[in-house]
Amino acid sequence: MPKGGRKGGHKGRVRQYTSPEEIDAQLKAEHEKAQEAELEEGGGGAAGSDPTKLKKDSSDESDEDEDDEDYQQKRKGVEGLIDIENPNRAAQTAKKVTQVDLEVPKELSRREREEIEKQKAKERYMKMHLAGKTDQAKADLARLAIIRKQREEAAKKKEDERKVKDTTGGTTKGLQSMSLNK
Fold first, then answer.
1. What distance lies between CA 140 and its chain's CA centroid?
2. pTM, whole model, 2 decimals?
3. Closest CA to 132 of 144, 146, 150
4. CA distance 31 to 163
5. Which of 133, 171, 163, 76 is nearest to 125 (CA)?
6. What pLDDT score does 154 carry?
7. Which of 13, 47, 61, 161 could cross-link 43 (Cys pair, CB 3.0–4.6 Å)?
8. Which uninterrupted H or E stretch holds 72?
9. How far apart are CA 110 and CA 18, in angstroms?
10. Buried b or exposed e, range 47-63, using 16+ CB within 10 angstroms
11. DSSP string spanning 94-158?
12. 157 pLDDT more than 90
């Protein structure tokens, strides 16, 4: 028996595509629903002032009801219960350069915020360190104090040795070393 079981496998199945007419009908229905929502939200006073618009809307509503019924009949299963928005189908509106608001502060991503917080924390730490308020700075200052004491003691010893050499006859030692060289 060949690999994959039956002859042909899964690759030759018939694919079903949405026809352009059906996509247009869906877009038209969505557009009409959006218009209805606009009229319901803020159209109470504005729609009441224009009687011709009301007549037009009422005639459109009867057509919309028929379209919605046809559209509802085409749906199968749970499609009628779940309203799915396909981002590939909806036309995305591009903003013009004049519409872009530059004064609005740009929201930073999580990584950018964390990076800025790290930098600020590092600066605070360096200020505290230079002021000698951190544990590490205190330890460094203690070490430096010990080293200074050791250096001062070493310098005092050298000075004492020089004084001893000068008073005891450092000159005789110099003469002895000269005589040996001859």
1. 38
2. 0.30
3. 144
4. 105
5. 133
6. 96
7. 47
8. helix 51-74
9. 40
10. eeeeeeeeeebeeeeee
11. PPPTTT--SSSPPPPPHHHHHHHHHHHHHHHHHHHHHHT-SHHHHHHHHHHHHHHHHHHHHHHHH
12. yes
